[in-house]
UniProtKB/TrEMBL annotation:
It comes from Nakamurella leprariae. The chain crosses the membrane at residues 78-98, 110-131, 137-155, 162-193, 205-229, 273-293. This is DUF368 domain-containing protein. It holds the Pfam family VCA0040-like. Keywords: Membrane, Transmembrane, Transmembrane helix.
Amino acid sequence: MRPAQLLTDAGRGVLIGTAEIIPGVSGGTVALIVGVYETALESAGHLVRGVVRGVLDPLRGRGTAAARSHLAQVRWTVMVPLLVGMIAAVLVASALLAPVIEDHPVQARAVFAGLILASLIVPARMVGGRWRPHEVVAALGAAAAAVALTSLPTAGDAEPSLILVALAAAFAICALVLPGVSGSFLLLTVGMYAPTLDAVNERNLAYLGAFALGAVIGLSLFISGLQWLLRHRRRMTLAIMTGLMAGSLRALWPWQTDSGALQPPSGDLSTVLLLFLGGIAVVTALIAVDAAVQRRRVAPSRD
């Protein structure tokens, strides 16, 4: 492969990795914008199935032919530079964001809330057409459940157990499958966003190992299921996702205690409002770019 193409794919990985670190900005959406979403999703599916079959099939006496077949279908020339770019971006972005979140929690939550609020339009619009009554009811139920879950008191500064880390990673990694949903946001709502950034910056191998294991398990269990739901129950799946994202905004109210209890607004309200609007503007711009890219792809087929 030409060096220019390798650098291009690595650059795409940098953009996706940076998006995954920022709550509310979906790495899946960015992958769509830069044109590698379908390739990455298909390759990830083959990679996961290849690894699983490579472990299980020999134990069942079936050999490794199926595993090798799946691994051969992975677009390695795209995936390797993409992953290198993503990992580099995660390391750099984590180092930059962690101190900001620790020193300016109110302002950080304001930006994140704006990012998430604007992101709601992505899964809501992907439902397609006018929402049906049962889809509205499902979304409202999902929103209510998310509000209830994010209203539970957090554990404060206690370090999460490695089992909890793996479980959170298993669910957060699934956000990569669905454009419009942010994995970092899912970590944020369960109080594990800051600990994960700290683990990356401090090279906490035990934490990162548990996170990686959970991510692999999550992909193994959920990637095929989510792909099936998007193919066969697309509207309802996206409606529920929209509701979950909307209800989880409760966790991003800027003013709250360390345990997650909401407080009335205080301090420099104008700055908080500007940051909130700035978050909305960032995602709105990304959505506009995505729409322009999609129009350009559709236009040639109509000629």
